Amino acid sequence: MKYKYILFDLDGTISQSAEGIRYSLESVLEKYGKRNVDLSDYTRYIGPPLLDTLLNLCGLEPELCDEAYEHYKGVYSREGKLMNKPYDGITRVLETLRSKGLKLAVCTSKLEPTAVTVMNELGLADYFDAIAGSNRDSTRKDKKDLIPYAIGKLGGSPDEKDKAVMLGDTWYDAKGAYECGVDFVACRYGYGDNGEMEKYSPVAHVDSPLELIDLLG
């Protein structure tokens, strides 16, 4: 077995979360009168850090972003997260990888407490040795920062990056893995643009969660 540490993105890799994220963003747009923003393309806001989405996609002024962030978080925690559901087969994948003695971590740009809550709501938290998410001050929001953090939470050291693999569905995951020198597996069943992921030379591709068993287990 080449890998010891398996890092899973959350949205679009573990869970089908687009409906809840879109619902929560729509609430933000309504609150701030940004009704002309098109949310039909999930690749524009599933993957990037939320603050980047509020600034770049929603077009909010920087001074409004903290307030909008809290509004989004409130709507998501009350309603959006309840629209989440695991991908078919993901529980079997996690059970198999755990049985092989591999260390599993969630590695997401979601705020870490939110990620913990979501994983508990999905009933999947106990399969993971660590849940690594972003922090509120934005010093740990990009995958290039989250990946080493997740490996560390699993007990790994910086020189063990060759024993880690990042599983994700967007170019944000792919780029972060590339920048960290960590292998990347493109989960093409998610929300991302497959062509964009290809730019960062994934070591493998899967079209369904169950394919991860043959690849990693």
Could you name the key traits of this structure?
217 residues; alpha/beta; two-stranded antiparallel ribbon; 16% strand
SSE map:
Elements: E1 5-8, E2 15-16, H1 18-31, H2 50-56, H3 62-78, E3 85-86, H4 90-99, E4 103-111, H5 112-122, E5 130-134, H6 143-153, E6 164-168, H7 171-180, E7 183-187, H8 194-198, E8 204-206, H9 211-216
Concise synopsis of the structure shown:
The chain has helices spanning 18-31, 50-56, 62-78, 90-99, 112-122, 143-153, 171-180, 194-198, 211-216; strands at 5-8, 15-16, 85-86, 103-111, 130-134, 164-168, 183-187, 204-206. With 217 residues, it is α/β, with parallel strands linked by helices.
Strand order of the largest sheet: 5-4-1-6-7-8
Structural classification: alpha/beta
Give a short account of the largest sheet: 6 strands, parallel
Oligomer: single chain
| H-E order | EEHHHEHEHEHEHEHEH
User: Looking at the structure, what is the overall shape?
Assistant: globular
Number of helices: 9
What does this structure look like?
There is one protein chain. With 217 residues, this protein is an alpha/beta fold. It is 42% helix and 16% strand. The protein has 9 helices and 8 strands. It has helices spanning 18-31, 50-56, 62-78, 90-99, 112-122, 143-153, 171-180, 194-198, 211-216, and strands at residues 5-8, 15-16, 85-86, 103-111, 130-134, 164-168, 183-187, 204-206. The protein has a 6-stranded parallel β-sheet, sandwiched between helices. A two-stranded antiparallel ribbon has the order 2-3. Helix 8 links the parallel strand 7 and strand 8 (204-206). Helix 1 (18-31) packs across helix 3, helix 2 crosses helix 3 (62-78) and helix 6 (143-153) crosses helix 7 (171-180). 42% of the residues are buried.
